[in-house]
Amino acid sequence: METIMVINGPNLNRLGKREPDIYGRETLSDLHERLIKFAEARGYKADCRQSNHEGDIIDWIHEAEGRSSGVILNPGAFTHYSYAIRDAIASISVPVIEVHLSNVHARESFRHTSVTAPVTKGQIVGLGVIGYELAMLALLEGEKK
Fold first, then answer.
1. Main role?
2. 42 labeled part of a ligand binding site
3. Domain 3-144 carries which CATH code?
4. Residue 15 among known ligand-binding residues
5. C-alpha to C-alpha distance for 71 and 6, rounded to whole angstroms
6. Catalytic residue numbers?
7. Domain edges within the chain
8. Which parts of the chain are beta strand (E)?
9. How do residues 45-74 score in pLDDT, each as one tens digit?
10. pLDDT digits (tens, 9 = 90+) for 92-110
11. Global pTM?
């Protein structure tokens, strides 16, 4: 069974508690369960992970090469300044789609810049947890080609 790796960055372990008016009331566990079921219904496996540590995220991106069909990445605040994560994405041939629960472009100005987006297949923002499902559909559709 093909695998889609889902990587969530810093503070996403606080989903459901942290600013629910912005990020929603679903917990990270809820999100992971939802994505696992979503993938299984399409004959795929979702490998869901979260870390508050940049090095873990980099290691997982590297691990995706040759192990996963694609990566859904919510780098959290690392989006705006982690050239190390950007370079990790650029170093693999596996497609990566960047996802953000909130519309980062409608928030504080520091959130408007993504150093990671230019090396991803695409970016989905502001659609809540459905954004992850749309990213998965895009990766699965890309697999068919």
1. Catalyzes a trans-dehydration via an enolate intermediate.
2. no
3. 3.40.50.9100
4. no
5. 6
6. 23, 100
7. 3-144
8. 3-8, 45-50, 70-74, 96-100, 122-125
9. 999 999 999 999 999 999 999 999 999 999
10. 999 999 999 876 665 666 5
11. 0.92
